[in-house]
Amino acid sequence: MVTLHLMVGLPCSGKTTLAKQLERERSALRLTPDEWQVRLFGQDAHEPDHDARHSAFEDLLWDVAARALELGTNVILDYGFWAREEREDYRLRAKRLAASSEVHFLDVPEEELLRRLAIRNSEPNESFHISPESMNAWFRSFQAPEPEELERRD
User: How far does Cα 77 stand from its chain's mean position?
Assistant: First the structure.
């Protein structure tokens, strides 16, 4: 059965690294909005249009993902999915397309995330620069998946 894979975790948790591995192992189309946005707009995280652009990329990439699922191709959405409501929404979308869904949660301690963030921010890449202050705020808003969310749904 074709599967929608949801990558769940905070920045620097290893979502994209795992998504790339799954892409090869599961013959899946990997969609990572940050890569698209950085290539088109550069490091725009502090620009007023950043959030609107990011939402537009996620919407557009969902359209691509939905079509790929309809055609029988596994898809990996490397969005982060910080809220349970958002994860449930995408799992329902997959179900409507007769696709299964899997949540891949990367649970990394805060100290390790901050260590990785310092490395990420020091290297040019296809990810956005993130301040430690932003990351600390996100620790409080992230909703970790409950164990039942990690079960594959057919």
Answer: 5
Q: What does the pLDDT profile of the chain (154 residues) look like in tens digits?
A: 999 999 999 999 999 999 999 999 999 999 998 887 777 766 666 668 767 877 888 899 999 999 999 999 999 999 999 999 999 999 999 999 999 999 999 999 999 999 999 998 887 666 777 888 988 999 999 999 999 999 999 9
Which CATH number is 3-150 given? Answer: 3.40.50.300
Instruction: Write the DSSP string, 24-42.
Output: HHTTEEEE-HHHHHHHHH-
Question: CA torsion 143→113→37→126, rounded to 10°?
Answer: -160
Domain ranges in the chain are: 3-150
